[in-house]
Specification:
- The protein is α+β, with helices and mostly antiparallel strands.
- Strands 1, 2, 3, 4, 5 and 6 form a six-stranded mixed beta sheet that branches.
- α3 packs antiparallel against α4.
Length: about 350
């Protein structure tokens, strides 16, 4: 593609300035330097490349170069240095301002996208600028690590470089929100989010990633994002330590937590008697958790709790006596296990029901 020709307006007064400096030997005044900076800003805003602009200045300097004494040439050379340096300073200042404006616009778009605060039609138009087609299905992956991350940090940059190296841009939006890493990708490109999860887990030193279900439309990103956040919250409450969590595979937990009052009643009526045990409900609740998580295998549950099988059996018998429900009885097991899940979701007994 041919390079755009630099208009004469960005060299306004440049040749005359060199001629005058070569004749008098003076340095450029503050106003003259300010005018060069202003021209540099205008050139940057117009989209001209800095290399082409500098080359044009040097060409103009050669055409206006004094053909006389050495002193004149030295003065002219000094003027060229001052003028080009001022021009480049203005150019770089305009670029920094443009970058900050772009970053602010991107952050505003991301905030609106993830909270649904903007008009959906307008949001879809703005999304095109950032490579998203909101008429399609999108899914959101959220990664949390041991510390909070900002968009310019090394960890987000490393993850982004890994994604771009493998997939290109492919309508991917990677950012941060509330200290977490986020990746928005088309719903039919599940491999993108899986690779993001792998890279984020490694870059955050073992961080956990949740992927929401694909949803369509401008509001779909919000729903998928909120679903991924809820999945991380559920994982924390239930003590799930898998590096990758898919909301579609954990739908039973939001369903159980949807009617909080009903769940609280189940926990209170089923497990409430455990609070009368010596040492409180927590040790017996941990026993039930390990027992169910180990597939109701007493030996494995005892190993996880660092207990003897006999001590574990005693605890299970104590639970049976206090609650009237036998953990080893299939007829009682479902109610007890559901109540244990509810207790973990409601953070009971640490929190009152």
């Amino acid at each position: 593609m041919a390079e755009r020709e630099i208009p004469e307006e960005y060299l306004e007064g440049y040749a005359q300035l060199l001629e005058e400096v070569a004749a008098t030997g003076r340095r450029l005044s503050r106003d003259e330097l300010a005018s060069r900076k202003a021209l540099g800003e205008r050139a940057a805003e117009a989209g001209f490349g800095l290399r082409a602009l500098v080359r044009t200045h040097l060409t103009a300097a050669r055409d206006a170069w004094p053909r006389g004494h050495t002193d004149s040439a030295e003065a002219a050379l000094s003027a060229v240095q001052q003028a080009v340096d001022a021009f480049a300073e203005g150019y770089e200042r305009a670029q920094r301002l443009a970058v900050r404006r772009e970053e602010a616009a991107r952050r505003e778009f991301i905030d609106d996208l993830l909270h649904g605060r903007s008009d959906l039609g307008r949001l879809a138009e703005r999304a095109d600028r950032f490579g998203l087609r909101l008429s399609q299905e999108h899914a959101v992956a959220v990664a949390r690590g041991p510390v909070a991350y900002d968009e310019g940090d090394a960890v987000p940059r490393r993850v982004e470089q890994a994604l771009v190296a493998r997939f290109g841009d492919r309508s991917i939006l990677l950012t941060t929100k509330d200290g977490r890493l986020l990746c928005v990708a088309p719903g039919h490109h599940g491999e993108v989010l899986t690779h993001f999860a792998k890279q984020a887990h490694a870059a955050t030193d073992g961080g956990q990633v949740a992927i929401g279900r694909p949803r369509s439309g401008p509001g779909g990103v919000v729903h998928s994002y909120e679903e991924a956040l809820r999945t991380l919250e559920i994982a924390e409450r239930l003590g799930l330590d898998e590096p990758l969590l898919r909301a579609a595979e954990l739908l039973v937990y939001p369903v159980l937590a949807r009617d909080r009052q009903a769940m609280a009643d189940l926990v209170h009526n089923t497990l409430g008697p455990l609070t009368t045990a010596r040492g409180g409900a927590e040790p017996l609740l941990d026993t039930l958790t390990s027992y169910f998580d180990s597939g109701c295998v007493a030996a494995e549950a005892a190993r996880r709790l660092s207990l003897s099988v006999r001590a574990l059996t005693y605890r299970l018998e104590r639970i049976h006596k206090l609650t009237g429900a036998d953990p080893s009885d299939p007829a009682h097991r479902y109610m007890l296990q559901t109540a244990v899940i509810g207790a973990r979701l409601l953070a009971w007994p640490a929190n009152d029901l």
